[in-house]
Amino acid sequence: MNTKDELPLALRAAYHALHRRSDTRFAEHGVTADQFVLLATLARGDALTQRELATRMPSDPSTVRAMLVLLEKSGYVLRDNHPSDGRARTVALTKKGTAKFQEVWKAGQSIRDQMVNSISASESKTLVVLLRKVAESLADFSRVMTVTPPENRN
Amino acid sequence: MNTKDELPLALRAAYHALHRRSDTRFAEHGVTADQFVLLATLARGDALTQRELATRMPSDPSTVRAMLVLLEKSGYVLRDNHPSDGRARTVALTKKGTAKFQEVWKAGQSIRDQMVNSISASESKTLVVLLRKVAESLADFSRVMTVTPPENRN
DNA sequence: TATTGTTATACTCTATAACTATA
DNA sequence: TATAGTTATAGAGTATAACAATA
User: Fold this and answer.
1) Portion 102-121 of A in contact with B at CB < 8 A
2) What pLDDT does B148 receive?
3) Which of A50, A83, A109, B26 stands 20 to 30 A from B139 (CA)?
């Protein structure tokens, strides 16, 4: 089997390992791995609209909404009317949410350490760069759209 | 923000992009991205027990069972008694399942191409190697276990 | 005793479509 | 017309715990 065929499965296996470890660790703190990502996204970009939040995570707007409802119930986030755009709602961490984020961030420290320590510092940088390129290529739909000429379509 | 802190999110973003693209593409063929991974795992290792299947995917045994029930309903897989181990059941692709796998494999060709073409051939190899190292480090629980000395535990 | 798998159960994430309100 | 968000709805994946059968 060649590299091209292996890359998707290798990516999946690495992510799943990270996700499972994170979920298990974070469960002791009452949040899921995905909820943590949402909190982390808010922590570096208050106060986003739900749509901006979904784009940055990245995730689906309706998925994000379902997550926000849960997190609001726990008192970690607060949704408010947008100051200038009447359609939009801003999302921000509450005090409790900020504290929770910091708590969980610390809880995940050893997992991040373990990941990075398994490879060298320069390899870590390379890995991040390559992952970003791959992610970007997959997000770019336009390239795919132009592959099939109109005359070959049904 | 340093590399250590960025790596988990970069990994997540890349995987999510792949997963969403795959799910959308594969939906036209009646399978999910995760079901495709299961079919692919069976395609290169007939006939596994459910436990072996879960380990290789990787996934949880009860998750795999839920997926198998769905795939069995669609007629893609068949579970049979293990020849020597009375507890175990073997899982194999049916003829229909093999054909479906090949069909979906082709459908995913352009996605795999797009991923690999966004970086050089040597970078692809590097990426796979690094992802495997990271995945392995996260699967290794023993290292974490020994971090906290018994006297510091509650 | 340990392992394989089943069953029951519950929760989160995911996504689509129809809808309201606003830009 | 397009965009932000809501609502209703559904399905898929995830995981735990109690259980039966077998190694």
Assistant:
1) 108, 110-119, 121
2) 34
3) B26
